[in-house]
Amino acid sequence: MTALVRYRLTTLLLSQRYLAPLLLFAALVTVLTSNDTGPLTAAHAASGLAMLLAATWLTMALAGLDDPAHRAVLTAATGGHRRLTTGTVLAALAACLPLTGLGLLLPLLVGDHSPTAADLLLGVEVQLTCACTGAAVGLLTARPVVRRQGHGLLLALALLLVLTLGKGLPPVNLLLTRLSGHHRSTELVGSTALLLALAAALLGTAAVVGHAFAVRRD
Q1: What's the mean pLDDT in 120-140?
Q2: DSSP secondary structure letter of residue 65
Q3: Cα 27 vs. chain centroid, distance in angstroms?
Q4: Could you read off the pLDDT of 159-173 as tens digits, one per residue?
């Protein structure tokens, strides 16, 4: 599995499809947290929203790297659809890890904050929650679930709008609402961990759905 994840990440790097989501993430975090002197919970909300978009984009790029013929060869070489889907999920999460570090660092560089251990832990939880949710959206809106790229993009935008604007909808809207209503990270670490577990479950469900479509269509 390690070799498969490395291969997927190498292919992503060579294709340069990571550049657009990376630049989008950095730009959003910088603009939304620039000269910020308020509580870090607001900066975490901005970083989480940027991560949600970037993770969705990166996952769609990873899932759509291969044409049908190449995907068939890769499936046979890796030992089946399940391993290929799992490798794509792990590669997407691995691609989000550097963004997590960037999302923690940028608000400290462009704003005026004195972070505590609870602030940093909460920031990691927020970004991982949004990364898992974004990866789930990406899996459900890319090949082989949605064959046409334009249709997948529209569906991804619709799902992201529902997740971010649906009042009280976990994990993303509920997370952003809590971050905007609380200023102490210590009060949110526990509840955010539960939302992270929910986001991981959503990602697992999306992987199962993606695998089912791959078996049927490939």
Answers
A1: 97
A2: S
A3: 16
A4: 999 999 999 999 999
